Amino acid sequence: MPASDFDQLMMRRALDLARLGTGFTRPNPLVGCVITHEGRIIGEGWHRQYGGPHAEVNAVAAVTEPHLLLRSRVYVTLEPCSHFGKTPPCADLLIEKQVAEVVICNLDPNPLVAGRGIQKLRDVGIQVETGVLEAEGRWLNRRFFTLQEQQRPYVVLKWAETADGYLAGPYFQPVPISGELARVAVHQWRSEEQAILVGTRTALHDNPRLNVREWSGPDPLRLVIDKNLSLPPTHHLFDGSQPTVVYTYRERAARPGVEYVMLSEAEDLFPQILRHLAQRNVQSVLVEGGPTVLTSLLKDGLWDEARVIRAPHRLGGGVPAPHLGLAGLHEQFPLGEDTVFVYRRP
Ligand SMILES: NC(=O)c1ccc[n+]([C@@H]2O[C@H](COP(=O)([O-])OP(=O)(O)OC[C@H]3O[C@@H](n4cnc5c(N)ncnc54)[C@H](OP(=O)(O)O)[C@@H]3O)[C@@H](O)[C@H]2O)c1
């Protein structure tokens, strides 16, 4: 049965609340919860940070007239958990509060727990509906679902290119390409992903800091490929200001803030890197180039989203950017004098 307009409105509100936890709940998903009574919201909450109370707990705590819970309708963006983790099961809480109905956006992707929270609720007579705004919920938690279902982080590729398709000057000379607003957006994107990766030559020529300076939010885990440990130790990536992982073929002991992860030369690079990140529960990685790394991930289909910032000016020559064409183009929008093209893997 299609969800009513009211159900969709409440679930949209719950998804908006869930979004407020962005960057703080991983490796947990973003979850929001809205509790209504006779068409009126009586409590709201979201999962604010990893290890903290779940959305349902916060929403129940926000209800100032607890007797209304008895006949309430609860909207929650992810199936209430049925097992003891860092907190007691949310399904038990809803049962204890004797809520009347529960409306769910997405099921728990873990096959060992999927459906169990719902079953627990139904077993005591609570009416449960599922799948309301399911696609929106999957999009919101795309990093979480990708890690759970594909055992690899969600991969966002990002680059800036000139109007004639170059992303660096001749001989890898870094040149300013995007404008002020795009730079702020990139810092926001950095704060939204758990890790950030660059290739050897980008690290060498651009000497990036890969932190969040022009936005408020957590710094990502820095990742760099340096097979032969050729990068100068004086570069920003090794300043110990932020955890950094170096993927290499050579052995080297860790130093403050820098960990060296040995990879096998017998196996392709990126499947090993993504596997290592999944083992660490890293949900997402922003890849900031350069073109060799980007092209390799594109060719292997190891990406989910690409954000291309196209500047209005031409360079006339240099290092060409990867070409995506129109396949997978999802949206485009202006950002100052630049245009951002967002692709999703077709
Ligand atoms: N405009 C932008 O958005 C942007 C962003 C980033 C960078 N850039 C520019 O891009 C230029 C650097 O790009 P680049 O393509 O030369 O270098 P890069 O992608 O930064 O690094 C390339 C290196 O990474 C390793 N690598 C990448 N993919 C690999 C794979 N599949 N298997 C094994 N090794 C792999 C290789 O290391 P080995 O050589 O050790 O084998 C390769 O040489 C710089 O000029 C920088 O300014 C522009």
What can you tell me about this protein's structure?
The protein has 346 residues and is an alpha/beta fold. The chain has ten helices and 16 strands. The protein has two domains: 5-143, Cytidine Deaminase, domain 2 (3-Layer(aba) Sandwich), CATH 3.40.140; 151-344, 3-Layer(aba) Sandwich (Dihydrofolate Reductase, subunit A). It has helices spanning 5-19, 55-61, 90-96, 116-123, 134-140, 142-150, 180-192, 200-206, 269-279, 291-299, and strands spanning 32-37, 40-46, 73-78, 101-106, 127-129, 154-161, 166-168, 195-198, 221-225, 244-248, 258-262, 284-287, 305-310, 319-320, 329-335, 338-344. The strands form three sheets. The protein has a nine-stranded mixed sheet with strand order 11-10-9-8-12-6-13-16-15. Helix 3 (90-96) runs parallel beside helix 4 (116-123). The radius of gyration is 23 Å and the shape is elongated. It starts with a helix and ends with a strand. The protein binds NADP nicotinamide-adenine-dinucleotide phosphate. Residues 159-160, 167-168, 172, 174, 177, 198-202, 205-206, 225, 227, 269-270, 288-293, 296, 319 line the site of NADP nicotinamide-adenine-dinucleotide phosphate (NAP).
